[in-house]
Design brief:
alpha/beta; Rossmann fold; Hypothetical Protein Ta0175, Chain: A, domain 2; 2 domains; eight-stranded mixed beta sheet; three-stranded antiparallel beta sheet; 11 helices; 11 strands; about 40% helix; binds magnesium ion
C-alpha cells in the first residue's frame, strides 16, 4: 500500500491515537486529556493536514461525551465525520448533528445496510425499556445502582463488582426476551467485556466504513483503516488496506500480516505508528 494513494483513513481511537508511552484515555465525561496526550493529538492533526489525505474519519466504540474532549484537539478540517458506538451513530462536526443512517443507506441503495440500520429503532425502544423496566429490576436483583452509559445506539452498563459477568448477561437477556418479540430480540447482540455489558443492534465498524465511502463517493481502494483490538476484527476480516500499531492484539497483527503489501503491521506503537504512515516517504 502506498500512503500517497490513500484518500481516506478510518481511524480507531483507543490504542491507536495514544502518545508513545500508551497513556490510556479516560472513560468518563469529566475526563480531560493530559498535556502528553494533547501533544500527540495535535501532532497527528498537523500530520493529517500536511498529508495528501482528503478525509480523516474517526471510527470508535466511544460515545460523544467521552470522545468530545479528545476530538477538540484534532482540529484538522479533514476530520468531519465521527463514526461512534460501533457505527450506530455518525456525527457530522460541520453540521453539528447525527446523520440519519437509514436514509443515507437508502439514498445510496445499500439495501442490506439500510435494513440493518433499522435495527436502531429496536435499540431505541430497548433504551426506553431499560430506563423504565430493566433498570429497576436489575437494581433490585443486584442491590446496587446500575445506570446505563449515556449512549444512543448501544445499551451499556457496568457489571456490578460483586456479581458474575456471565450471570448478569444471562439475567438481562432473559428480561429482554420476556418483554420483546422474538423478531426484535433476534436483532440484538448481547456481549460482555471485563467491565461492561453491551447490547448492540447487529451493526459494526465495517458498516460505518461502507456508508461513509458511499456518501463521499470513494472506493475501498482509496481507503485505509487503522485499528488495534478485537472490536476491530470485523474491519480487519473484511477490509484489505489496514494498519495496526505494534501494541495491537496478536489476532489483529496476524490478520494484518495475511494481507501482503496491503497490510502494515507497524514497528511503532500507538500514535507514532500513524505518524510514521503519514510521513512523506
Ligand atoms: Mg482500539
Amino acid at each position: 500500500m502506498n500512503s500517497s494513494s490513500i484518500k481516506i483513513i478510518f481511524q480507531d481511537v483507543d490504542g491507536c491515537l495514544n502518545p508513545a508511552d500508551g497513556e490510556d484515555f479516560g472513560v468518563d465525561s469529566s475526563w480531560q486529556p493530559s498535556q502528553n496526550q494533547i501533544d500527540m493529538l495535535q501532532e497527528i492533526s498537523r500530520a493529517v493536514d500536511d498529508s495528501p489525505l482528503e478525509h480523516f474519519v474517526v471510527n470508535t466504540g466511544r460515545f460523544w461525551p467521552i470522545l468530545e474532549n479528545l476530538a477538540q484537539h484534532l482540529t484538522t478540517p479533514k476530520l468531519r465525520y465521527f463514526i461512534m458506538e460501533h457505527a450506530c451513530v455518525i456525527y457530522d462536526r460541520v453540521e453539528k448533528r447525527n446523520l440519519d443512517l437509514v436514509e443515507i443507506a437508502r439514498k445510496y441503495q445499500l439495501d442490506s445496510l439500510a435494513d440493518r440500520f433499522t435495527h436502531l429503532e429496536t435499540l431505541r425502544k430497548l433504551l426506553a425499556w431499560y430506563d423504565e423496566t430493566g433498570l429497576p429490576e436489575m437494581e433490585r436483583r443486584y442491590d446496587c445502582p446500575m445506570p446505563r452509559l449515556d449512549k444512543i445506539g448501544n445499551l451499556s452498563f457496568a457489571i456490578p463488582k460483586h456479581a458474575d459477568g456471565g450471570e448478569v448477561l444471562e439475567t438481562i437477556e432473559n428480561l429482554v426476551s420476556r418483554d420483546f418479540s422474538p423478531d426484535e430480540f433476534g436483532k440484538l447482540e448481547f456481549l460482555r467485556s471485563d467491565r461492561f455489558i453491551d447490547i448492540l443492534p447487529g451493526i459494526d465498524k465495517m458498516d460505518g466504513i461502507e456508508l461513509v465511502l458511499a456518501m463521499l463517493d470513494l472506493e475501498k481502494k482509496d481507503a485505509m483503516a487503522m485499528g488495534d483490538y478485537l472490536n476491530d476484527l470485523s474491519v480487519f476480516e473484511r477490509f484489505d488496506q489496514v494498519l495496526c500499531p505494534a501494541n495491537a492484539h496478536p489476532d489483529i497483527i496476524a490478520l494484518t500480516k495475511t494481507k501482503g503489501s496491503s497490510g502494515i503491521a507497524s514497528p511503532h506503537s500507538y500514535g507514532p505508528a500513524l505518524l510514521d504512515f503519514l510521513e512523506p516517504k
